[in-house]
Amino acid sequence: MADLKEAAWTLTEADIDALEIGAGILGTGGGGNPYIGKLRAREALRAGHVMRVLPMEALGDEDRVVSLGGIGAPLISFERIKEGREGLRCLRALEQRLDFTAAAVACEEIGGQNAMEPLITAAMAGLPVVDGDGMGRAFPEMQMTTYSIYGHSSTPSVMCDPHGNVVTFDHAITEKWHETMARACVIAQGGASTLASAPMTGAFFKRFAIPGSYTQAIGLGRAVMEARQAHEDPIAAICKREGGRHVFSGKIKDIHRHFRGGFNVGEAEIEGLDGYRGSQAHITIQNEFLVFRRDGEVEVVVPDLVVVLDLDSGLPITTELLRYGQRIAVLALPCHELLRSEDALAVIGPAAFGFPEIEYTPLPAKETP
Amino acid sequence: MADLKEAAWTLTEADIDALEIGAGILGTGGGGNPYIGKLRAREALRAGHVMRVLPMEALGDEDRVVSLGGIGAPLISFERIKEGREGLRCLRALEQRLDFTAAAVACEEIGGQNAMEPLITAAMAGLPVVDGDGMGRAFPEMQMTTYSIYGHSSTPSVMCDPHGNVVTFDHAITEKWHETMARACVIAQGGASTLASAPMTGAFFKRFAIPGSYTQAIGLGRAVMEARQAHEDPIAAICKREGGRHVFSGKIKDIHRHFRGGFNVGEAEIEGLDGYRGSQAHITIQNEFLVFRRDGEVEVVVPDLVVVLDLDSGLPITTELLRYGQRIAVLALPCHELLRSEDALAVIGPAAFGFPEIEYTPLPAKETP
């Protein structure tokens, strides 16, 4: 355990500022509001907690890693303040239930506030967070992690709400059943709880987690901040860094959102601006931005990333903060290769989100340096 | 443990036949269809399982008793066949979770199929069922037991569904929160699961359970069967035995039922027959029959029992089997004194069911022989 701490690097408040932006971009509108997450993480840092990120390769094959995150609708976690120790209660209850000691905490999804959740819990527990995650972005449902896709059973898991209620999902016959039961329960708990999944081995994590997520998100956020400071184009900086493409600029001319089955779902209509004048775009939402269409044609679809930024600042906008009249840029970023296998597409491809008619044509992959 | 078995009496198929009727009457329309319950109990008997009922006083003060029952909407448990060992899985998971051995199984509610559920599970586990229950009738929600009302915390509890999913409610901040979370989860599981609550001590059970429920229900069923065989009036036999009153005879002229929040809710309109000709009656339903009104005036209300019988056979009719045109008798039976305290009425009085305008006027209490 001492070894793991030595191998880890320590996060500063500036890292958290950068992570807010990077996790916001990778969150594709969801994963919980990253600004709220930043405030909570900063609070924990100022209270003296130390946040450490551990390179994946430093993890021993037999080490136990617990992945955790917020579960619920982003809109609710935006409006309702957490009690603060939900994640820690989940972790401790899980360790007690299964009689093991976690060596590190892992991230369920690097997108949005869920990038902060493991850092806060791990800091309180005196553990590092491994530099990887289960999505490389944000997705709305729990079975949509590379952990689940590549064979990890996420039960027994423990869910804690801000009131003090604790539920253990001892066994789910499939990962999707786990999601179904936990979703029903989180709605009953008020719509924003925290869940820690059954521990993974270090060996499994190193093979199937999206590698380097914290490094990526913090580096991405820092690139945006530097471009803004240098009065350069942050959108170009993001595209360059992530191998992405700026696919649209426009003004939101209509937005429909509602709360259904514990999710924020909706549609946004965008009227082209600048070089896109005369074109109409459309984005489909389920917690995250799922499908981008231009003039009726699908151009970007899950699992690739549809990112919405403020056109002027280059800062990401989450689904609950989209407003009529906003001037936005839409970016398409390629997802990680682990999300593109046949097994992965069965869980996170267009058909899994209710669009069987859309064929997934991968964006050109990000070049690895 | 050997002592407990010796003190218990063994049920026959004839007892189960009688229990079907008695539990149907005490179920006030709910608690799950007793006929389905009888078929399942008979199946277990014929498979060689032994069903034992233990007098309450034989229970040691330190013995651990686990109360269990079906949770969900009666309509669903009527249409959907159970896997069969849900209750046993709940019991074993709970024993393992809390590291104890149950001395006996207890009944959550003596009404309907839920009278059979503990017998089946206990028989499979080689345990007796204590002769008492938590309601003396059926109620739609879990916090409505004398166990919960008089201070037992029903968590940790374990819920199992027919698919094989297992959920533990480790901690609920109130009994009502337990109900809220379990209800959401049972809907997600398909609407009919089984739940075992945290063990009670024998001392607590002997003080706060409704005593003698199995004896009462079986005796009541037997009285109906005997009256029918002797061509006597079974309705009069029920009223005599339970200290009740025949309050209406009529024909169902309108029935509204729907499925809301995991419950069967509805209203029945009844047109008077025989001595009640010219009068109109109305019954309000939430899984059970809750309020009986005659010509607009409330005459019987929870926690007292509103019982609906087939006018000719004197056999009970559950809410899901009410039909337009049925000729029915309505009986009012007094509930047990444990359901009439101030603490009890706060949980199971008219206001708790959404009728704050109705004042509970107890029916004359049953005379104890």
Which descriptors apply to this entry?
homodimer, 12 helices, 2 domains, 27% strand, ten-stranded mixed sheet, CV3147-like fold, seven-stranded antiparallel sheet, 369 residues
The ordered H/E elements of chain A are HEHHEEHHEHEHEEHEEHEHHEEEEEEEH
Mean pLDDT of chain A: 95
Radius of gyration over C-alpha positions of chain A, nearest whole angstrom: 19 Å
Number of helices of chain A: 12
Q: How many β strands of chain A by DSSP?
A: 17
- Beginning-to-end CA distance, first to last residue of chain A: 32 Å
Question: Could you explain how this protein is built, in words?
Answer:
The first copy, chain A, folds into two domains: 2-213, CV3147-like domain (CV3147-like fold); 235-353, CV3147-like (Beta Barrel). Chain A is built from twelve helices and 17 strands. Chain A has helices at residues 2-7, 13-26, 34-46, 74-79, 86-98, 117-125, 146-149, 175-188, 202-208, 213-229, 234-242, 342-348; strands at 9-10, 52-54, 64-72, 104-107, 129-133, 157-160, 166-171, 192-196, 200-201, 210-211, 245-260, 263-272, 280-286, 288-294, 297-301, 305-310, 327-333. In chain A, helix 3 packs parallel to helix 6 and helix 10 runs antiparallel to helix 11 (234-242). By secondary structure, chain A is α+β, with helices and mostly antiparallel strands. Helix content of chain A is 32%, strand content 27%. The mean pLDDT of chain A is 95. In chain A, strands 1, 2, 3, 4, 5, 6, 7, 8, 9 and 10 form a ten-stranded mixed β-sheet that branches. A seven-stranded antiparallel β-sheet of chain A has the order 15-14-13-12-11-17-16. The interface between A and B is medium-sized, with 22 and 22 residues. Strand 7 (166-171) of chain A pairs antiparallel with strand 7 (166-171) of chain B.
